[in-house]
Amino acid sequence: MKWSCILFLFLMASCGQPASNAEDNSAEEEVQQVVSEAAPVEADSVQVQNLLNRYACASCHGMESKPVGPGWPEIAARNLTLGQFKTLIANPEPANWPDYTPMAPMGYVPDGDLEKIYAWMTTLTINE
Description:
The chain is mostly helical. The chain has a domain at about 45-120: Orthogonal Bundle (Cytochrome Bc1 Complex, Chain D, domain 2), CATH 1.10.760.10. It has helices at about 1-15, 20-40, 45-55, 70-75, 80-90, 110-120. The termini are far apart. It comes from Fulvivirga sedimenti.
């Protein structure tokens, strides 16, 4: 009887509590991920130009001219989400840009750098 009372009290005390800290941590990590995805990334033009040169983006994409691929304002006009942008950099789809030479996959570009390029790109407009 004594053990059943202790067990009953234990169950009552833990009612509504998470089973472990792992569940707490997992929920907290989920919230952090959502917050970090929603937080805007800022990048200045000089920093982005350095990234565009480092990853050879500037070899094919320009501001006004279109050496090989579409210009940055033209890409920005597509209103891609960050996720779509990252996916298309890693796995380009030539059907999306039929008038241009197909782009090589560039999956090696770090997410943080893609986020800076994306943030900068979304500030651009097409000059007509």
